[in-house]
Amino acid sequence: MEEAIKQIGERLKGLREALDIPTKEIADLCGISEEQYLEMESGESELSVSNLQKISRKYGIALDVLMFGEEPHMCSYFLTRSGTGMSVERQKAYKYQSLAGGFRGRKADPFIVIVEPKPADAPLETNTHMGQEFDMVWEGRLELTIGGKKLILEPGDSIYFDANQPHGMRALDGKAVRFLAIIF
């Protein structure tokens, strides 16, 4: 997956250079330093799907193009067979599988997300992104922190929330969590 992260970084750099966008502008959009952004471009730092989504919306580039290098091409329907959606690990603890990657002009981005367990003393990483998010847990137990409030989601539980609020996720019980996430 390191190669996939480097390829995403290359696409970010290509977008920035093609549109002649200053690094500071993109870094400010993502709420990170220019140095952190350049580390993303070089594939040396973790990529946040929320930051990729901010960039895709601001500059009118499909999220799939940034994540997978492919332009969506279907406009009537797009079928994703079990286990076949394009995937990317944004860091070792998170894996995203796109479920609508080939549908052009979609209004939402659905993913299957797998959160791997971390040591109990590992800090919780939070992020924010525009829009709203729906999550439904399929396997495992998920601790979801939204704006400082901790919630425990069990298999079958779902939540819909304002994604502009800081939120972070942690797998519980030393087991991976698998859930459906739809970002609007």
TrEMBL record:
A GO cellular component entry from the record? cytosol
- Gene3D superfamilies recorded for this chain? Jelly Rolls, lambda repressor-like DNA-binding domains
Alphabetical list of CDD domains matching this protein: cupin_XRE_C, HTH_XRE
Q: Which SUPFAM superfamilies match?
A: lambda repressor-like DNA-binding domains, RmlC-like cupins
In terms of InterPro entries, this protein maps to: Cro/C1-type_HTH, Cupin_2, Lambda_DNA-bd_dom_sf, RmlC-like_jellyroll, RmlC_Cupin_sf, TransReg_Diox_bact_type
Q: Which SMART domains match?
A: HTH_XRE
Alphabetically, the GO molecular function entries are: DNA binding; DNA-binding transcription factor activity
- Keyword Metal-binding in the entry? The reply is no
Question: Which residues does the UniProt record annotate as the domain HTH cro/C1-type?
Answer: 12-66
Keywords, alphabetical: DNA-binding
Keyword Secreted annotated: no
Matching entries from Pfam families are given as: Cupin_2, HTH_3
- Which PANTHER family did the record assign? BLL2473 PROTEIN (PTHR46797:SF19), HTH-TYPE TRANSCRIPTIONAL REGULATOR (PTHR46797)
Official protein name in the record: HTH cro/C1-type domain-containing protein
